[in-house]
Amino acid sequence: MLMMDECRPSWLQDLTRNALDEDLGVAPAATGNLQGVPPAGRDVTTAAIFDSAQRAQAVLVAREPSVVAGLQVIEFALADVQARFGLAQVAVELLAADGDLVEAGTELVRMEGPVRVLLTAERTILNILSRASGVATATRRWVDALAGTGARVLDTRKTMPTMRELDKYAVRAGGGTNKRMGLYDVAMIKDNHIAAAGSIERAISLVRAHQPDVDIQVEADTVEQALAAIDAGARFLLLDNMPVATMRQAVAAIRSEEQTTGRVELEATGGLTLANAREVALTGVDYLSVGALTHSSPIVDIGLDFVA
User: Is 9-144+298-307 a CATH 3.40.50.20 domain?
Assistant: First the structure.
């Protein structure tokens, strides 16, 4: 059974295959292949310098302090290259696990096998591993900033197209929490929806009538909107771009009604930075949603080095 903290193997395998297709291209000699049989492509530099029998040991090294994420990709990339070119397998020893906080210079993985496999798979491995580790590392900074406040950091849908599962997995590896995966699993009523429906109440009513089985979240820009949404039955509110003083007022007003309404989950969103994260969390919200986790996190510098 797939664990919640893993990427789906089939999805990651497809991602890796597509990345290798992009890197290796179509070898001219493969032009006449049968329909439906993908060409292996080629690494013109590695194939020219190394023969198929040459072997080496290599390590993947974190060149800066970071949180590791995406190690699953290694087995898929190596196996794909090995199968494409009919080469021997690479032996892999994991020295770290996803979610580990490591220092600069830490060896993450040791590998031994054909040089052609190691070098041909290198960039695909590093591209995916460095991106995922970058998201995980950025997320951990937010987790640390919120420690002790009771609030958690959430991601958003601002992910790299076709790589959402990896981005959201990396957030989990960094200690963060996933919000909705897409448009299909949670109804999020935002300002444009409210304007089109005519009111918060009507927007909620329409969603409930059409999709009674999905959770509803409502965006509110003011205290008045927040209270109106609760009166209409919303139990998860996004407090959007509110000044801290206004957010504190909104939280107090909502919490004072919870004996009647039941628990209301509150999410701060918009204008959040590491510098103001703790102040916002201490207003009493449950979550801070941060698009920058996945749309702006720099990659982690990870390298592959041959060893004697």
Answer: no
